[in-house]
């Protein structure tokens, strides 16, 4: 096994040396030497995969991580394993010329291992809606597709502006989004979902909490008195479940079944989240 991996690494190193390269700066501030035109890309995060396809680089992707959902054609690509612990041997065997990852989702140990092996890895670190735009542009720089990235961001900005305009002047409903129920985990200030909710014409009652993904007591949720819950359609946190749990049973939004639903596209800090945004805005203001 080790001999095979060593041989694969040698072949990979030789192939990387054969390409013209340039230096770009990723979103962690690292200088990364990348091919002029990457053609063997491995994306280690589903949202990154969606962004890569959105700027027309899908044909250059040779593999993805587990849990890829969008776009549909990306699910046909081979997987290198989980987001946190992808298979090193599988990655090396595919002879990638560039790995794409996310600072907050890919394990630092895996990232450091790829660096030590000399495999170029470009990290993005999106926070908020503007962070999504910035990451698409960063990927455009890394993949030498900046014009396509500029066009994609311009289109997303137009869609965002249209949603905001449609919600302007209409009543603002307050919502609580339980990411999990025990312990209670939700969204705070800076989380792109919090900003998406606001753009759609509502307000998360936890938008003032500094952390992006804070833990909060059920008593604090009740005190914030949300008009409604915002649940993920098909998710594990359901209204039926919450009705059976202490504390939740006394929340008016639960007892009166006041619920809005967002689909799983909103889980991805990538272009597909804007599809979910448009659907959510129609629910808040039919």
Find the CATH superfamily of the largest domain: Nitrogenase molybdenum iron protein domain
**Please, how many helices?**
11
Structural class assignment: alpha/beta
Q: Kindly provide the name of the CATH class of the largest domain.
A: Alpha Beta
Secondary structure: number of strands: 12
CATH topology of the largest domain: Rossmann fold
**Which residue ranges are poorly predicted, with pLDDT under 50 across at least 5 consecutive positions?**
7-14
Largest sheet data: 4 strands, parallel
Oligomerization category of the chains in this entry = single chain
- From the 3D coordinates, which CATH architecture of the largest domain would you assign? 3-Layer(aba) Sandwich
Rg over CA atoms, rounded to whole Å, is 21 Å
Distance between termini? 59 Å
Report the order of strands and helices.
HEEEHEHEHEHHEEEHEHEHHEH
Number of structural domains:
2
């Amino acid at each position: 096994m080790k001999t095979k991996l060593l041989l694969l690494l040698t072949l990979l190193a030789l192939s990387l040396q054969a390409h013209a390269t340039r230096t770009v700066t990723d979103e962690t501030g690292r200088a990364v030497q990348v091919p002029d035109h990457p053609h063997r890309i491995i994306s280690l995060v589903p949202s990154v995969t969606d962004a890569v396809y959105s700027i027309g680089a899908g044909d250059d992707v040779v593999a993805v991580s587990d849990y890829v959902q969008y776009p549909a054609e990306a699910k046909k690509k081979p997987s290198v394993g989980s987001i946190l612990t992808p298979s090193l041997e599988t990655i090396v065997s595919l002879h990638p010329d560039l790995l794409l990852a996310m600072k907050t989702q890919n394990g630092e140990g895996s990232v450091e291992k790829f660096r030590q092996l000399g495999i170029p890895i470009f990290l993005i670190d999106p926070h908020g809606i503007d962070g999504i735009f910035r990451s698409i542009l960063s990927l455009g720089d890394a993949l030498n597709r900046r014009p396509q990235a500029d066009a994609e961001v311009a289109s997303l900005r137009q869609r965002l502006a249209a949603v905001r305009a449609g919600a302007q002047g209409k009543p603002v409903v307050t919502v609580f989004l339980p990411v999990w129920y025990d312990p209670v985990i939700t969204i705070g200030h800076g989380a792109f979902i919090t900003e998406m909710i606001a753009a759609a014409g509502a307000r998360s009652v936890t938008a003032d909490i500094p952390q992006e993904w804070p833990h909060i007591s059920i008593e604090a949720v009740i005190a914030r008195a949300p008009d409604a819950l915002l649940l993920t359609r098909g998710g594990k946190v359901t209204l039926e479940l919450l009705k059976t749990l202490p504390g939740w049973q006394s929340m008016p939004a639960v007892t009166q079944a006041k619920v809005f639903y967002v689909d799983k596209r909103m889980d991805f800090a990538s272009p597909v989240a804007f599809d979910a945004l448009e659907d959510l805005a129609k629910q808040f203001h039919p």
